[in-house]
Each structure stands twice: as structure tokens, then as C-alpha cells.
Specification:
Layout lengths: L25 H16 L4 E3 L9 E4 L6 E12 L2 E7 L2 E10 L2 E7 L5 E7 H14 L9 E5 L5
Antiparallel strand pairs: 1-2, 2-3, 3-6, 4-5, 5-8, 6-7
The protein binds cobalt (II) ion.
The site of cobalt (II) ion (CO) has 5 residues, from helix 2.
Length: 154
């Protein structure tokens, strides 16, 4: 595995709409593993492929329970609203309040191409929405309120 360079806000790659993954192979799995290693090394809870310069619809999330590799993820249901503080590995030391759906249902392919459905709430639901935004070129700073500098909390 290898640590990858995390692209920072201002890099045009973070504004692009990512293409669906067409081939789930060892190369993609290596990318997912490198993304995971990069995320854990930075103490993040999620990372999207464009954050390491790959314009693919692939995301890795681990909010502390287990690691999810989401390929071509699509949110099919949203319920409720919740506001909480977010940060992003691509926007170091900036935090802001973001309104998200409280619960989401997301369909995706796993790292072996098997279709899965995940029902998420709490931090996991927030993270899914934050990471999927990256796949459409959206950053949390585009929608956050009370954006402020701060120390990393988690
Ligand atoms: Co982010």
C-alpha cells in the first residue's frame, strides 16, 4: 500500500464530476487500499477518489465501526435533517456546520463488484453524504455555515 497526496481546495480536480467505475479489478482495489491508508494516516473518517486525483465514483469510509468501500454509490432514500460540524481532508483545519439528511439509504458495489445496500444514520450517514458530494465536485465549504478555523477534534 502507499500513501497518496491529498488534493487541497482550489485544485480544479475537486470541482469535477467523477465518472462511474467500469472495471472492478485489482488495480481498483489497490487504489481503494491506498485511499484507506491515506485516510487512516490523516485521521479522516472518509475519502473520495477525486481527493487523490482520480475522477472515479469510489469512496472509502470508516467512522470507527468498519471500513466501507463504496463503488458507484447512489443515495436512494433520505429522511430527516440534522446539522453538525464537518471538516475535510482537502480543507485542513477548517470546520463548519452542515445540514444533511439524518438517515440515508445508499446502493453501491463493493470491492468485488457485489451489489449492496447500506442504511446509515448519525456520523455514517453524514459521511456518506459528504463523500458522495465529492464525486459531483462539491465541497462542504460550499454549503457550510459558520465556517471557521479550528484544531482537529477527531
Ligand atoms: Co471531504
Amino acid at each position: 500500500m502507499a500513501l497518496l497526496e491529498i488534493k487541497k481546495a482550489g485544485d480544479p480536480v475537486l470541482k469535477e464530476v467523477c465518472a462511474p467505475v467500469e472495471k472492478i479489478d485489482r488495480r481498483l482495489r489497490r487504489l481503494l487500499d491506498d485511499m484507506a491508508e491515506t485516510m487512516y494516516a490523516s485521521e479522516g473518517v472518509g475519502i473520495a477518489a477525486p481527493q487523490v486525483g482520480k475522477l472515479l465514483r469510489a469512496v472509502v469510509i470508516d467512522v470507527g465501526e468498519k471500513r466501507y468501500d463504496l463503488i458507484n454509490p447512489v443515495i436512494t432514500e433520505k429522511e430527516g435533517t440534522a446539522v453538525d460540524t464537518e471538516g475535510c481532508l482537502s480543507v485542513p483545519e477548517m470546520y463548519g456546520e452542515v445540514e444533511r439528511a439524518e438517515t440515508v439509504k445508499v446502493e453501491f458495489l463493493n470491492r468485488f463488484g457485489k451489489k449492496h445496500v447500506l442504511e446509515a444514520d448519525g456520523l455514517l450517514a453524514r459521511c456518506v453524504q459528504h463523500e458522495l458530494d465529492h464525486l459531483d465536485g462539491r465541497l462542504f465549504i460550499d454549503i457550510a455555515k459558520n465556517l471557521h478555523k479550528g484544531e482537529k477534534k477527531k
